[in-house]
Specification:
The complex is a heterodimer. Chain A is built from 7 helices and no strands. Chain A is an all-alpha fold. Chain A is elongated, with a radius of gyration of 42 Å. By secondary structure, chain B is mainly α. The longest helix of chain B has 28 residues, at 2-29. The chains are: A mainly alpha, B mainly alpha. Chains A and B meet through helix 5, helix 6 and helix 7 of A and helix 1, helix 2, helix 3, helix 4 and helix 5 of B.
């Protein structure tokens, strides 16, 4: 028989351990195992796995296990939109939260820059003191600008005349 | 399920973006107004008096009167002036100076000419740029206004649109 390792046929070891090989093939494989140490080792390991599985006893299931399982699957499928929305507020792992927050921040800054190019300036702190001479200059400018707003500009007072 | 995880992550991303936008809007609403008079009005009376006390009494009194006049303008007039100042304050300093010069020149025009020039500026400011340019190179415009008036109209309608 061809070596199962060289002929890339590992399923033969599984079938041998499970006892599903036909008798003739099983005998041929046993003859090969007597000559091939590598295959003997794999077959021994596979047989050990099967013996361990045979020895393992699954814990008994509750009588209504299937019912409960299908009910939970059904509930999952019928989650309301509110449940789905609320799920987004559950704490998320830091490795997801950090890149998400960073991307959102970048998007926001990019949006602000696109919307107000050149207008992002340091914001004056609250409780800022405005100097009296700055107020005076602004009043001068406002008086001048007011000239444009008055329908009858002849009524306006000349700022230099004050 | 991988699809569920993807949807939840996408929803979370949406929430983060929404929250960031809301925060930015709140921050923008809390920004101090750019008009120094409005910022002056937000100072405490004690702070205002402390600043005014640094000036000669007559000058301080005049500033108080002028601020009082500004604060007692009709709301729509004050808002229009605030918006005009906003446009003006965003001009580079050299352009701001041009506007100041033209407004002074405008005020020094003969009384009979001021309403004519004023209404021409108001008309051109409401026009699209191309139409405005076309009007200003036309013979009618040149024949109606002196070179100085043309310059006033040209600069004010260009630098203080709307």
């Amino acid at each position: 028989m061809n070596c199962p390792i060289q002929s890339r046929n590992p399923e033969r070891f599984v079938a041998y351990a499970a006892g599903t090989l036909d008798p003739e093939t099983a005998r041929a494989l046993e003859r090969h195992l007597a000559e091939c140490a590598a295959c003997r080792s794999i077959a021994a390991d596979q047989t050990a796995v099967w013996k361990a599985l045979d020895a393992w006893e699954a814990p008994p299931l509750s009588p209504n296990f299937d019912q409960r399982l299908y009910r939970r699957i059904d509930q999952e499928v019928r989650f309301s939109w509110w449940d789905r929305l609320a799920r987004t507020f559950r704490p998320m792992p830091l490795r997801q939260a950090v890149p998400l927050t960073a991307s959102a921040g970048l998007l926001l800054v990019a949006g602000l820059l696109l919307q107000h190019p050149g207008t992002i300036a340091p914001v004056a702190p609250r409780g800022e003191i405005v100097r009296a001479n700055q107020v005076e200059r602004t009043l001068d400018d406002l008086d001048l600008l007011r000239l444009l707003g008055t329908a009858d500009s002849t009524q306006s007072v000349h700022p230099d005349a004050r | 399920m991988p699809g569920d995880v993807g949807r939840t992550t996408l929803l979370r991303f949406g929430w983060v973006v929404l929250l960031a936008i809301l925060l930015a809007m709140v921050a923008a609403a809390q920004q101090p107004p750019t008009n120094p008079i409005d910022r002056w009005n937000r100072m405490s009376p004690a702070q205002r008096e402390r600043e005014l006390s640094k000036l000669p009494p007559a000058r301080a009194r005049l500033i108080r009167q002028r601020i009082w006049r500004y604060n007692h303008m009709r709301p729509e007039e004050q808002q229009a002036l605030r918006e005009r100042y906003q446009t003006f304050s965003q001009l580079p300093p050299d352009k701001q100076q041009i506007v100041r010069d033209r407004l002074r020149e405008f005020h020094q025009l003969p009384q009979a000419r001021r309403p004519v020039v004023h209404s021409e500026i108001a008309r051109l400011r409401s026009w699209p740029e191309a139409q405005r340019q076309a009007r200003m190179i036309g013979d009618e415009f040149r024949s109606q206004f002196s070179p100085q008036e043309q310059q006033i109209i040209r600069d004010l309608s260009a630098y203080l649109p709307n």
